């Protein structure tokens, strides 16, 4: 059974997709989707040998040889033209790492119609990448599991314009503000407040003032969105 976090990713993969799951670790996501007849086949891409071997073990143990293929590769290099991949998922990493994987391999996305991304932190990096590369957000989700809060961003091709607040907080999430969203940003605000308070104990310097002003702007933005 998938974790609640991976279920939130799985439910956004279209029926009959050909999926490349990048940073797949145990290949749980593509294996689950093939086993439940949700997708036709999947690639499990892994850059690290240990997780790649775990992916191979999952495929062997579930008898999915040929339907899920594990590849030891950096980012989107796991995708080959003949695979016919139409959907890419990248889950369980920071937003900036996910954005850099997309940026570094974007020539491999030519046949891809949907990206299902699950950043643990700094989802804004993904939204900025999307805008700069002709993708737009079709859906956003946020959920809490084991005390941690995760976002899911679904992108399809098409231009969109988001302002700075929408890039940071998410155009749909900031509109709807579900409980996990409010909890995430209340936590973030509390941690910023702590850092700002501690800074005021440090000896004054121009550098400190600049840093403090930046953190305060960041905090005020959160308070503005939470209202
Ligand atoms: N996607 C799974 C999930 O959400 O449960 C596993 C997440 S795990 C925290 C992140 C995985 O991404 C690790 O196994 C790591 O080796 C892999 N990874 C990190 N950078 C990568 C890259 N550039 N290309 C492929 N895999 C990468």
From TrEMBL:
Gene3D superfamilies from the UniProt entry: 1.10.287.1890, Vaccinia Virus protein VP39 (3.40.50.150)
Species assigned in the record: Bhargavaea changchunensis
Protein known as: tRNA (Adenine(22)-N(1))-methyltransferase
